[in-house]
Amino acid sequence: MPVSEAAKDPGALPPGRTTLSELRRRPVRELPGVGPRVEGALRELRISTLADLVSHYPARHEDLSNVKRISELRVGERATVFGRVVSTKPVGRPVRGRSPGFSVQLYDGTGYMPATVWGRPWLQGQLQPETNVVVSGEVQRKYGLQISVKSIEIVEDRGSEDGPHSGSFVPVYPVNRNIQARRMRALIHRALAEAGHVLDPLPLSVIEAQELVNLDDAIAEIHFPTTKASLKEALRRLVFHELFIIQAALGARRERLARTEVGRSSAGDGSLLNRFLKGLPYSLTPAQERSIAEVLGDMRREKPMQRLLQGDVGSGKTAVAVAALLTAVEAGGQGAIMAPTEVLAEQHFLSFSKDLEGLPVKVVLLTGSQGAAERRENNRAVADGEAHIVVGTHALIQQGVEFRNLSLVVVDEQHRFGVSQRTTIKEKGTTPDTLVMTATPIPRTLSLTLYGDLEVSVIDELPPGRKPVETHVVPVSERLEAYEAVGRELEAGRQAYVICPLVEESEALEDVRAAEELYEELAHEVFPDRSVGLLHGRMKSAEKREAMADFNAHRTDVLVATVVVEVGVNVPNASAIVIEGAERFGLSQLHQLRGRVCRGEHPPLCFLVADPKTGDSEKRLEAMVAHQDGFRLSEVDLAIRGEGTLFGSRQSGVADLKVARLQRDIEVLVEARREAFALVEDDPTLKKPEHRPLRREIRELLGEDVEWLFRD
Ligand SMILES: Nc1ncnc2c1ncn2[C@@H]1O[C@H](COP(=O)(O)OP(=O)(O)OP(=O)(O)O)[C@@H](O)[C@H]1O
C-alpha cells in the first residue's frame, strides 16, 4: 500500500500502532534485503534503527514536473533533464592514472547532449548505456552546449509505475559511495511502510491549535511529497516538533525552579538608586530604562528572578547591573557579581567603585591572588554583612563564600554560551535573584533556544553619538602604515590598543614570548617616543592591575595585550586598535575587541592585520568591514560556521537540530515556545495521561539530563 494512503487511513492499517520509541529500538537489519554490507554502509551515515531511517530526511527533492527537453535548453540556465545514457568517457587530465571526471552522452528524443560530472568516479561504472537518468546542472557552452552536472540520479522509465522512484518529486538523500541513491530511497520507502501508523507524541490540543498535519502524514510527505504545498506543511510540522520538544524541556525547567525554590521580594525605596542615576554624566537610553524597569519588576516579585540581559558591546549593561545591585542593597540584601576572568572582575571592581563613589555602599573584591590576610578580612566583611556588593570570578563566588544575606547574583557571561554558569547559589533556603548578562550578540532565534527558560531584556540601541569604527583590513606587508595612522591618533592625545595574534591554549608560553616581542618592537622601533605598556595572561595579578591602571590614567599611550582585554575593558580615550593576526580570531572576538574603541567621542579606527588563508577567514574580515552591528555580525558568523557547530555538544542542554533552521524558522520557534510554555504551566511534570507520550519523547530526545524535571 502506498505510504501516504496508509497514513491517511489509519483504520486500514495492521493492528499494531507503533510509537517513535519502538522504532528507535528496531534495528535496520529487520528490513528485508539489509545484510551486513548495507548495514555497515548505513552505519556510516549514522543510521542504525528504523527511526533513524525514517528521519533520514532528503536533502532536497528533484522536481520532475519541471523537466526540460534537450532541444529547449539555453546557455546559463539551471535545468533538469530526463534522458537515456548513450555512452560515457573520462574527461580531464588524469592524476595518478585517474581521471578527475567523466562525460555522459544523453539522448531524450529531442536531441543529444553531453553532461560532465566532476568527482564521484565510481558513478561512471553504474551508468551503462540505456540507463535512464535525471540530471540537473547548469547549461554551458563548450564546443557546443553541455550540462555541468550538479546531481545525477538513475531512475526508471518515466512511463512506468516505479513506486518511490517515480512521481513528480523524487527525494534526494545524503548518501555515501557504498549506498546508491536508489537503494536509499527504496529502503526508506520500506521503513515507512513497516512503521505504519506512528503514535503522535504531541498533545492533540497543540496539534489542533497550530493546525499541524499529523506525524504520519508529515513523515510520509517529507520523503515522498504529493505537492509542493504538502511538503511545506510536512516540514513545518517536523520543525515544530523538534523545537517544541526543546522548549517544553526549558519551560519545565523554569516551572521546576519556580515551584521548588523560594525567593523573596526585593523592593527598594530608591534612596541609593536615585542618587546613582542623578550622578551619571549621561542620561539613560530608552532601552536601558526599559531593561531596568523589567529587572526591578522581577525583583519585586517573590519568585526568584531568572533574567537574561542581552546587549551589544558598549551598549551600557553595567548601568542596569548597578541599578539591580543597588535595589538589592536598599532592600537590605547583598549582591554578588561574577565575572569570567580575574582581569574582568578587577575591571568591574574599579568601575563600580567609581560609579558608587559617595554612596554609602561597600564593594569588595575577591580574587584568587589576594593574600591570605586580605582574603580573610574580605570574607569576614561579606559574612557579617558589612560588604554590600561582592565582585569576584565565577569560580571564586561559587566556592561557597558565606554571605549574610545574598539576594541578587549578577552573572557576567560575556561571550560564552553558558547554561552551566547558571547553577543557582542557594542561600539559607532561598534562591537569590539571578541576572545573566551577555555581550554575545546572540541572534534572537538562538537566544530563545539557548535561554528559553529565562526572561529576556534586550538593550537594542547604543548610547547616542557613538561613531562607527572605521575598519581596515591590512596585509602584513603594509602593517607599518597602520601604525603610522595610529601614531597620528597618539599625536592628537589619544591612546591605542595593539592585540597580539591569538595562540592555542597549548602554546601559552609562546604567547608570552610573542607578546613580549611585539612589545619590544613597538616600544623601541615603532613608537620610541611614546610610553608603551604590556598586558598578558601570564603576568601576576598586581602587575596586570598596574598595567591596566596605567593605561586607564593615560600614563601609557599604547597597550600591547593578548586577548585578556577582549572583554569589558573600558578606556574612553582609546580611539584606535590594531589586531595582529586577525585571521585567527573568531568574528565575535573581533567584534568584542573592536568594541574597546567606540566608547569616546573621537571617530575610532580599527586595523585588522591579516593574510587570510581560508575563504572563511576572508569572509569574517569582510564582514567586519561591512558591519558594525553585533547582531548582524553574529548572523553572518552563524551563516559561515553553519548552525550545526553551535549544537555540537549536548553540554549546552540543546540537542542537535535536524530539520529546524533557526534563521528560517523563527516564527515556528516563537509559536513552539508559546505553546510549550503554556502546556508546562498547566502540567509542569507532564503527568496527565494525554501528556505522557510527550514526556517520553522529551526524555528520549534530550537524554538523562532532563530526568529531574519530571520527578514529582
Ligand atoms: N546612556 C548612556 N549614554 C552615554 N554613555 C553611556 C550610556 N550608558 C553607558 N554609557 C557609557 O558607555 C560605555 C560602555 O558601557 P558599559 O561598559 O556598560 O557597556 P557594556 O554593555 O558593559 O559593554 P561590554 O559588554 O563591552 O563591556 C561606558 O563608558 C559607559 O559609561
TrEMBL record:
Catalytic activity entry: ATP + H2O = ADP + phosphate + H(+); Couples ATP hydrolysis with the unwinding of duplex DNA by translocating in the 3'-5' direction
Keyword Hydrolase in annotation: yes
Xref: SUPFAM superfamilies: Nucleic acid-binding proteins, P-loop containing nucleoside triphosphate hydrolases
Positions of the Helicase C-terminal domain: 468-644
CDD domains linked: DEXHc_RecG, RecG_wedge_OBF
Top-rank taxon: Bacteria
E.C. code: 5.6.2.4
Keyword entries, A-Z: ATP-binding, DNA damage, DNA recombination, DNA repair, DNA-binding, Helicase, Hydrolase, Isomerase, Nucleotide-binding
InterPro entries: ATP-dep_DNA_helicase_RecG, DEAD/DEAH_box_helicase_dom, Helicase_ATP-bd, Helicase_C-like, NA-bd_OB-fold, P-loop_NTPase, RecG/Mfd, RecG_dom3_C
Gene Ontology terms describing biological process: DNA recombination; DNA repair
Annotated Helicase ATP-binding domain residues: 298-459
Record-stated family: Belongs to the helicase family. RecG subfamily.
Name of the featured protein: ATP-dependent DNA helicase RecG
Organism of provenance: Rubrobacter radiotolerans
Lineage: Bacteria, Bacillati, Actinomycetota, Rubrobacteria, Rubrobacterales
